[in-house]
Amino acid sequence: MAGQEISKDESLSLKGYRHACHVMIYADTEAKLFGKIPIKHIVLMQMRFDGFLGFPGGIVNPREESLEAGLCRELWEEIGMALKVGPEDHCSSCLALSPPDLVTHFYTKKLREEEVREVERAAVSSAADHGLEVMGMIRVPLYCLKKGEGFPSFLSNSFIDSARSQLLAALRVLGLLSQEELEAAVATAKMMRQ
Ligand code: GTP
Ligand code: MN
Ligand code: MN
Ligand code: MN
Ligand code: MN
Ligand code: MN
User: Fold this and answer.
1) Average pLDDT of every residue of the chain
2) Dihedral class, residue 34 (left if φ above 0, else alpha if ψ from -120 to 50, else beta)
3) ipTM greater than 0.90, yes or no?
4) Which residues are near ligand 1 (CB < 6 Å)?
5) Residue 152 predicted with pLDDT over 90
6) For the chain, does the N or the C end have fewer beta carbons within 10 angstroms?
């Protein structure tokens, strides 16, 4: 069933399915917006060619390459550098909302702040897909200001497939935002969309 979570092994035994792997790159930071509002963490997403927000990564062929090797190849194309993402970084696998015959595998990778800056530089200067399939890497604002500026308004954007749920789940599981902060942001985003 579309949107349903599935184990990585079980998904690889499905006949006639394609597989895609994406990764959330993140880091801790001490930076403060306007010198006072903690940025908390740096979380990278990308503006895709189709105008939707998503994570770097792409289609992988498990008959020719492991999921992680395929993800690394996609990262070469989309961020212009090699990042070691291994099976231990796997977070979830899901049947895609559309197309119906796609499994989306999701990974998270923690870097140091300087390494994230390196990724951002490479994404502009070296990535083959920059300006083509990828319009740019972006940082997710995780703070929430008085009228919902920040994370709630960010959540009001359009996301590809289940990327928005992947973002919320990763922030919760990794403890980057508290359950209360997440619920408040989702509720505010819902009001802002109306
Ligand atoms: P091509 O090189 O053109 O094949 O693109 P790609 O290999 O980079 O594939 P892409 O990253 O677009 O991912 C393939 C499919 O996975 C997309 O058509 C979306 O349906 C889905 N997808 C893309 N990004 C994400 C994401 O961040 N999360 C989830 N859940 N699905 C995504
Ligand atoms: Mn300013
Ligand atoms: Mn790609
Ligand atoms: Mn891609
Ligand atoms: Mn591709
Ligand atoms: Mn491509």
Assistant:
1) 96
2) left
3) yes
4) 20, 22, 54-55, 57-59, 74, 96, 104, 133, 160-163, 166
5) yes
6) C
